[in-house]
Write a structure and sequence with these properties.
alpha/beta; 260 residues; globular; eight-stranded parallel beta barrel
Length: 260
């Protein structure tokens, strides 16, 4: 098992994402994943990452104004050009930090129609072709409605159907076990059945999104072994909110028999 720190959730002891690269390295991490680093130039982010001497696995798509709750325009008709521009900007950042995966966020909306699904799939087709040319992987993630009400994609069946129809090695599923439990549970069977389409995994305890070893619904020692038994050997993103401090909350890794 390889664990990478999510700098949008962890190491908030650092005021900005630029400081968190170094904090993750000091805590023993070899790799990180991040949201899109709004407010920081490509050069600033690259310098912070390289100065920390740490690998970056994944970056989220540029999504618009997060302070207004904007989480992407991938499924919004009429905003295809904005999506394409955001994708290109994100690719530039991904290349700068050496990230091989981009999480293509779908967006939030009140009333979903068939045109939203058509736009979403067409934009993902476009993204898969572009990402193929630069040898990067796009991942899509169903997000539960408790955590992010009105998020467009919260159905694993629909996500997999789209991935299968597009049929590209450059578009896969981001499997966050936190969201999987909230949306449909039945983790053993769902992990096994979804694994052929998975390009990235994230974890957090349910319901409060803290460390895997806090009291909650998920038996993570079993789940981590189950992921491995079903063929997953890539990075696992720790997209959780530390219950106390980021570094103090890492004791679970050794107690589960793993290391950073």
């Amino acid at each position: 098992m390889k664990f990478c720190a999510n700098l949008s959730f962890m190491f908030n002891e650092g005021a900005s994402i630029l400081e968190r690269y170094a904090l993750a390295k000091e805590a023993g991490f070899k790799a990180v994943e991040t949201g899109f680093p709004f407010g920081h130039t490509l050069e600033q982010v690259k310098k912070a990452k390289e100065s920390a001497g740490i690998e970056q696995v994944l970056i989220n798509l540029k999504t618009g104004d997060v302070s207004k709750g904007e989480l992407g325009v991938t499924a919004i008709p009429g905003k295809e050009n904005e999506f394409k521009e955001n994708l290109q900007v994100t690719i530039d950042y991904a290349k700068a930090v050496g990230a091989k995966k981009i999480h293509i966020m779908a967006g939030k909306m009140e009333n979903v129609t068939s045109s939203n699904w058509e736009t979403y799939e067409n934009n993902l087709k476009y993204a898969a072709d572009v990402l193929k040319n630069v040898n990067l992987l796009g991942v899509i993630e169903p997000i539960n409605q408790h955590s992010v009400p009105k998020y467009f994609l919260s159905d694993y069946g629909k996500a997999v159907d789209i991935i299968k129809r597009i049929g590209s090695e450059h578009l896969k599923l981001q499997l966050d076990i936190f969201h999987l439990q909230h949306i449909c549970g039945d983790l053993s069977h769902n992990i096994k059945n979804l694994m052929p389409y998975v390009g990235h995994v994230q974890i957090a305890q349910v319901p409060n999104r803290n460390e895997p070893d806090v009291p909650g619904e998920i038996n993570y020692p079993y789940i981590l072994q189950h992921l491995e038994a079903n063929g997953y050997n890539d990075w696992i993103g720790l997209e959780y909110k530390p219950a106390k401090g980021s570094k103090d909350g890492l004791k679970w890794i050794a107690s589960y028999g793993y290391s950073l």
